[in-house]
UniProtKB/TrEMBL annotation:
EC number: 6.1.1.17
A biological process from GO: glutamyl-tRNA aminoacylation
Glutamyl/glutaminyl-tRNA synthetase class Ib catalytic domain: residues covered: 7-279
Protein name, UniProt field: Glutamate--tRNA ligase
Key word Aminoacyl-tRNA synthetase present: yes
Family designation: Belongs to the class-I aminoacyl-tRNA synthetase family. Glutamate--tRNA ligase type 1 subfamily.
Protein task: Catalyzes the attachment of glutamate to tRNA(Glu) in a two-step reaction: glutamate is first activated by ATP to form Glu-AMP and then transferred to the acceptor end of tRNA(Glu).
Keywords: Aminoacyl-tRNA synthetase, ATP-binding, Cytoplasm, Ligase, Nucleotide-binding, Protein biosynthesis
One Gene Ontology cellular component: cytoplasm
Subunit structure: Monomer.
Subcellular location, record wording: Cytoplasm
Length: 449
């Protein structure tokens, strides 16, 4: 059994698209598992599909993970390891576990259709095993290049799944998987197992859509002389309507969520908690998620991902975020005011960029909202001299109340609208000291200032 400090997990995306919340959850769970165990997180680009894999997508995946704070300890690229797959192929051929097949896709399709029509499972019939050497030579002489299948042992594979518990799968219901294409390119199933063995992967955490693939890969691990890693299969995320998520669903890509102004920790927090027994509560630092993490908390129920829940969580996180965590980003947006400004406005933000509105109120020009010019003029006459503090708003309002007889909303709302140009917003006791007196006075007089 692998000791905790020897844990090595991997996130192995194919660079054929950008990350979306579904595969990001897999990356996050692996990262949290490794960090909680003091182990190693490997990022491996499964880029053997050279028709669809691009360097642009690979770079984008790295950018997405970096934005989330999911740093990797080791990096590998399958396209750099092709000779290792060739060696594994030769070993499997020598042991009789890899055999050539000559059927075309059309022929295989007809076989599957016939099996289904007869009420049977569409499992490859192993017809290629019956071919003589002469028949194979004849096919190759006619220009047919074989693809190669892994000969499964028709027995039951059993394992203790970290999420699903005791699990089993009988291999008679599964076709011998193709490991090598006719053009000689290795299939994911082979490349992944070779990499997992040689890169020392001890735990594989991925979606439940890999269950049957995992069962076949367990036999492949053994055929290559290795013990299969510990497995864990997470329930797949769905959208709010119960439909599966696709990495082509651009609105839920990490790239789009970042462009929309979502906080990385909102994404991390929701994806770390969704599908677990833990409540979804705001977290400011990813280290807090490491402390909370326990793979046994994930249930087999299908969790739904709701963008509205992410938006709400994003706001809650901002409302509690320390100034030190956003100071550089605020400066990058051209927003000053220091910690006093941040503490004044953060409770009214849904996204960080919303702070720009309130910085405009403090330092820029605002169109005042004035319905009663006489009331605004009376309030201007009693505007206190600077310096101002958090008591200034109350003392000014008390003076205006005594002079005009107004109270409640009729007292406060016209002052807020004139000073800020907004009907709602941060507590005026905190905001007023951040606005120069000259601007406040000009706005009370109906001027854009």
């Amino acid at each position: 059994m692998t000791s905790e400090n020897n844990v090595t997990v991997r996130f192995a995306p194919s660079p054929t698209g950008r990350l979306h919340v579904g595969n990001t959850r897999t990356a996050l769970v692996n990262w949290l598992y490794a960090r909680k165990a003091g182990g190693t997180f490997l990022l491996r680009m499964d880029d053997t599909d050279d028709e669809r894999s691009t360097e642009e997508y690979a770079t984008g995946i790295e950018e997405d993970l970096t934005w989330l704070g999911l740093t990797w300890d080791r990096f590998a690229r399958q396209s750099d390891r092709l000779e290792r797959y060739d060696a594994a192929v030769e070993k499997l051929k020598a042991s009789g576990r890899l055999y050539p097949c000559y059927e075309t896709q059309d022929e295989l399709g007809l076989k599957r259709k016939a099996q289904l029509s007869a009420g049977g499972p569409p499992v490859y019939d192993r017809a290629a095993l019956k071919l003589s050497d002469a028949e194979k030579a004849e096919k190759e002489a006619s220009g047919i290049q074989p693809h190669w299948r892994f000969l499964l042992l028709h027995e039951e594979e059993r394992w203790t799944d970290l999420v699903r518990g005791e699990s089993h799968y009988h291999m008679t219901s599964l076709s011998d998987p193709v490991l090598l294409r006719a053009d000689g390119r290795p299939i994911y199933t082979l490349a992944s197992v070779v990499d997992d063995i040689e890169l020392g992967v001890t735990h594989i955490l991925r979606g439940e859509d890999h269950l049957t693939n995992s069962a076949a890969q367990m036999q492949l691990f053994k055929a290559l002389g290795a013990e299969p890693p510990v497995m864990g299969h997470l329930s797949l995320l769905t959208d709010v309507e119960g439909q599966g998520l696709s990495k082509r669903l651009g609105s839920l890509s990490l790239e789009q969520l970042r462009a929309d102004g979502l906080e990385a920790m909102a994404v991390n927090t929701l994806l770390a908690k969704i599908g677990t027994s833990d409540p979804v509560e705001p977290r400011q630092r990813i280290e807090q998620l490491v402390e909370d993490f326990d793979i046994s908390k994930f249930s087999r129920a299908t969790p739904g991902f709701d963008p509205a829940e992410l938006e709400a969580l994003n706001a809650k996180i901002l409302h509690e975020t320390d100034f030190a965590l956003v100071s550089e980003r605020l400066a990058g947006l051209g927003i000053g005011g220091g910690e006093a400004f941040w503490l004044a406005v953060r409770g009214n933000l849904e996204k960080l960029a919303d702070a720009a509105l309130w910085w405009q109120v403090c330092e820029g020009e605002v169109d005042p909202l004035i319905e009663d010019a006489d009331y605004a003029a009376a309030a201007a006459q009693h505007l206190p001299a600077e310096p101002w503090d958090t008591d200034t708003w109350r003392s000014w309002a008390d003076t205006v109340k005594a002079e005009t007889g107004r109270k409640g909303k009729q007292l406060f709302m016209p002052l807020r609208e004139a000073v800020t140009g907004q009907s709602r917003g941060p507590d005026m006791a905190d905001l007023l000291p951040l606005i120069p007196r000259g601007k406040v006075l000009a706005r009370l007089q109906g001027q854009r200032a």
